[in-house]
Structures are given as structure tokens and as C-alpha cells.
Amino acid sequence: MKKVTVPGIDTSLTALLTSVHFAADKHRDQRRKSREACPYINHPIEVAEILSRVGGVIDLATLQAAILHDTIEDTQTTGEELEAHFGAEVRRLVEEVTDDQRLPKAERKRLQIEHAPHLSPKAKLIKIADKISNVRDVTHFPPTHWPHQRRCEYLDWAEKVVAGLRGLNQAVEELFDQTLKEGRRLLASPSDNLSAASGQQKAFQQQPDRSELQPKNYEPS
Q1: pTM confidence score
Q2: Which entry of 36, 49, 59, 73 is annotated as an active-site residue?
């Protein structure tokens, strides 16, 4: 498709919206595994929004990669496809924060901790914002099949990952710390234990079968 430049139009904004459109199309059949089954695209949009609003990030490639960060890992998108649409830098950033799905989950989680200090600065920012979004979801909208202990373990693991990502953006790091503290406070309350168990039971008893309508549901990683 031929690009048309219109005088007065912010090309950076257009490029960012193009990445949102691309990600929305790629994730169109995906939902989070919470009882609410929120559209998956909400997550990468939140990651980019955190970087922009909280972190003051204005770098286009960083914001585009934040929006696209799960396309290789969770869809059929290739690195070559991303590069063709958004350039080599965006491709590299997305590949930096992408897990190798051929590995067992426990190994992928171990490698996230090990690799975190060695990511590029822009990839580190994306990864911290990703963990903020995921910790929020695990606290307030957890996957229906996750018991209380698994949610607590996720918060502990996320803290270990973020430990290797610090030193770049104080505001984003402080938001992670606040989000983690709030998550632990809520998960430590007896009422959360009861509501989580009740919610899981209701999810199985009351929710319709989404297996055909939503064949690809994803949990935080």
C-alpha cells in the first residue's frame, strides 16, 4: 500500500496507531484467562500507556514495540513481518522480550530472570511495564484456574524479574513497587482467599463455554 503524506499530520502518531491496528488484528481471537475474559489487546495497549503516561516515554519504537510485544510469542506473526511493517528496531525490541515457546514454562520463567539484566534499555522498560500490567491482572482479574498460592508465587517471580530491569525510569519502577505492594496486601487478606475460591467456583458453574468462540486464551507470563 502506498503511503500518502498529508501536510499537518503527525506521522509518529499515525505510525503508533498503525501498530495498534496491527496488534488488534493479530490478537483479535484472543482473550485473557480471567473470569471476565477481557480482550487480550487491552494488555499491550496498557503496557504502552504505562510507559507514556507514567514513564514519560516518547520514543516511537519503544511504544510500538510495547504494543506489539506479544505478537511473535502469542500469534503467528514473524520477526520478518514485523520488520517489514515497522522496521528493524521494533523487530529487535519485540524479539528481546519474547519467550522461546519451545522451552518448558519453568525454564522460560527462569530465563526471564537470568536475561533481564542483559536486555537493552528500551526492552527493559517494556518488560517492567508488562509486569505491572500482569501483576495488576493476577491481583484483580486472575485466570480462573489459578489457586491463591500460584498468584502469590507469580508476584514473587515478577519481583525477581524486575530486579534485573531497574535503573532506567524511576516513575515506572515506583509504580511497579506500588502495584506489587498492593497486590501482596490484597492477596494476604482472608477475604481475598474466600472471594478467589468463590470466583473460581462461579466461573466454572456460571460462565458459558467459550472454547469455540474464544479458542485462544492467554495467561500472564
Answers
A1: 0.85
A2: 73
